[in-house]
Structure to design on (591 residues):
């Protein structure tokens, strides 16, 4: 029997970082959403099954706030607190919890989307889904669909136009592309983890694994650290990374064990006490289909830091290409070309020929060269949040994605900013935000950080300035910032955005050397405000209407039922997570 739940507003295919954020964003914006993931855990390449760390625009340090915010920042801060032991399984659990706690979102784990059911050649009606282990079949009907599956099998079956391989330089005027187009892509990889056992540990290489007897066979492949495998164990870029997946896995296993045998048994690598404790079995795929939207992101868009009119997300990871022979290449394993922060337009996140189909993640509308930057998972996550948010606007207004771009882009951008996403070049213009009409006062401010900064429309440090109110040193006293209106206002939601030190990199990784690097967030950022109260005027003093202790969120939403009816609101701060001043980037107030 096929089970047919009542139709969803959005069905998301694939629970990697893009799909998780798309589904949560849509559900939080009121959509009834389904997230269908074929694996037992969420996270895709970031899950405990594959163990890649989530990278993004914060890869390089320039003193400005490059880090992605929104749902991803929530997850990363929560992970800092809940997973100090750095366990991949705890990260799986966190993603699971974040999805499950959304009342509007149904999670289908262990569920493979088999194929789409079409209304006609331009519109998807439903997805056929097979849930393993429970042996249940579902027909998931939806108004909109988001293929966040990486490979995009379902979108391809629906007839969405896509591209594979590498474009010729002339096609999009890309200097980093080759002269001739070809069918090659980045290869796939298997990671491993090893542990220092404190005593000599032998390694017996299985007969079927490869042998790498000399360091020459691993030229340009540094192997002086053993805990967390090597991304450069990459192979299959000259094959079909989808159809040849099983063959690629088999070869990668032979390479992984051959490299470990080299470390243990060929020359002195100082690894006598080290032993393998985990070897990945699910190949981490880097590249396969790239779907075609109304725009194809290309090299020059990245290099010039282009701000699109319909920007909904951004990236900043270098253009990171690899030799197609991967591990078998004698070249360096990657070539990275730095780019400034650039934006990603909504037109790259939906199909140009299927009218209710979005994409987010590594399968978006980009050339191979642009994809080599957009593919990292923090960028995938913010694209996912953008897609979920765009779907909510489409549901409300009955738009196709193309109509949303033409008629609703300003609204979608404003929703994203209100949800603590960053879009370079876009500022808060939300007419419903009552804070923008308030007079701002504070107990005191450090030079150049007055209270009006929290309503200047930008919630992070940019080249144009710091955009934050900074109190005088707390020194045992409470400090406060106040919004005051000419007449009483009805306020049912207050949004406060604190400083989580976005200039530094916040990464959850098994690579211990990353934590040793400068400008890395290792514990809850000291700048975050931990203890604060929300107060309204009462007689000659103030009455506390909400008290929060132990906060470690950057973006706090406080809902008041019934609404506060008040001419002023004061946020009074008594402690931070360690810093001697309190810093706030934004306050929003909604009726
Ligand atoms: C070895 C390696 C190293 C990398 N290094 C980094 C790095 O350091 N940092 C970084 O950020 N990125 C890195 N990347 C790139 C990054 O991991 C990928 O680009 C990213 O995972 C893409 O995210 P996604 O959400 O689009 O897809 P995925 O992470 O692949 O998630 C898609 C999910 O959809 C599921 N799915 C697929 N088909 C279906 C279906 N029909 N039904 C249901 N579910 C389905 C898949 O099982 C998967 O779990 C690396 C990739 C590899 C392979």
């Amino acid at each position: 029997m096929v089970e047919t739940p009542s139709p969803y507003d959005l069905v998301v295919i694939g629970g990697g970082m893009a799909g998780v954020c798309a589904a949560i964003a849509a559900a939080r914006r009121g959509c009834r959403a389904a997230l269908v993931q074929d694996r037992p855990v969420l996270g895709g390449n970031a899950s405990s099954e594959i163990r890649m760390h989530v990278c993004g625009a914060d890869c390089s340090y320039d003193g400005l706030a490059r880090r992605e915010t929104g749902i991803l920042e929530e997850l990363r801060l929560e992970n800092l607190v809940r997973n100090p032991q750095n366990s991949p399984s705890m990260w799986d659990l966190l993603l699971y919890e974040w999805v499950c706690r959304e009342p509007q979102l149904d999670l289908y784990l262990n569920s493979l989307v088999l194929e789409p059911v079409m209304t006609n050649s331009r519109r998807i009606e439903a997805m056929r889904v097979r849930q393993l282990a429970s042996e249940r079949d579902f027909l998931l009907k939806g108004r909109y669909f988001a293929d966040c599956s990486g490979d995009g099998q379902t979108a391809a079956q629906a007839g969405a136009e896509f591209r594979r391989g590498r474009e010729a330089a002339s096609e999009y005027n890309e200097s980093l592309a080759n002269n001739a187009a070809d069918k090659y892509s980045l290869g796939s990889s298997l990671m491993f983890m090893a542990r220092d056992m404190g005593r000599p540990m032998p390694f017996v290489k299985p007969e079927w694994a490869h042998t790498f007897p000399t360091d020459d066979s691993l030229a340009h492949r540094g192997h002086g650290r053993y805990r967390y495998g090597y991304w450069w164990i990459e192979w299959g870029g000259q094959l079909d990374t989808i159809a040849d997946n099983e063959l690629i896995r088999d070869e990668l296993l032979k390479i992984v064990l051959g490299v470990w045998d080299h470390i243990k048994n060929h020359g002195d690598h100082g690894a006598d006490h080290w032993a393998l404790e985990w070897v990945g079995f699910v190949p981490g795929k880097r590249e396969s289909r790239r779907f075609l939207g109304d725009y194809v992101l290309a090299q020059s868009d990245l290099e010039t830091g282009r701000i699109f009119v319909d920007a909904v997300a951004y990236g900043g990871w270098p253009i990171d290409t690899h030799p197609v022979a991967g591990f078998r290449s004698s070249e360096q394993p990657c070539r990275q070309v730095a780019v400034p922060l650039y934006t990603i337009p909504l037109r790259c996140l939906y199909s140009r020929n299927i009218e209710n189909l979005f994409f987010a993640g590594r399968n978006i509308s980009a050339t191979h060269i642009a994809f080599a930057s957009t593919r990292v998972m923090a960028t995938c996550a913010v694209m996912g949040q953008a897609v979920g948010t765009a779907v909510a606007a489409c549901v409300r207004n009955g738009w196709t994605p193309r109509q949303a771009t033409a008629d609703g882009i300003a609204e979608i951008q404003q929703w994203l900013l209100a949800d603590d996403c960053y879009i370079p070049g876009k500022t808060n213009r939300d007419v419903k935000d009552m804070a923008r009409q308030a007079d701002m006062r504070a107990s005191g401010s450090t030079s150049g950080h007055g209270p009006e900064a929290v309503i200047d429309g930008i919630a992070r440090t940019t080249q144009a300035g710091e955009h934050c109110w900074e109190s005088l040193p707390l020194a045992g006293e409470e400090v406060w910032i106040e919004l005051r209106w000419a007449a009483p206002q009805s306020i049912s939601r207050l949004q406060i955005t604190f400083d989580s030190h976005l200039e530094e990199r916040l990464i959850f990784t098994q690579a211990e050397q990353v934590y040793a690097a400068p400008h890395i967030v290792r514990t809850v950022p000291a700048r975050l405000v931990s203890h604060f109260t929300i107060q309204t005027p009462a007689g000659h003093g103030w009455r506390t209407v909400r008290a929060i202790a132990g906060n470690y969120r950057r973006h706090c939403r406080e809902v008041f039922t019934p609404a506060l009816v008040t001419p002023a609101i004061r946020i009074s701060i008594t402690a931070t997570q360690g810093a001697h001043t309190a810093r706030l980037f934004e306050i929003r107030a909604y009726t």
The first helix runs from residue 17 to 28. The radius of gyration is 25 Å. The mean pLDDT is 97.
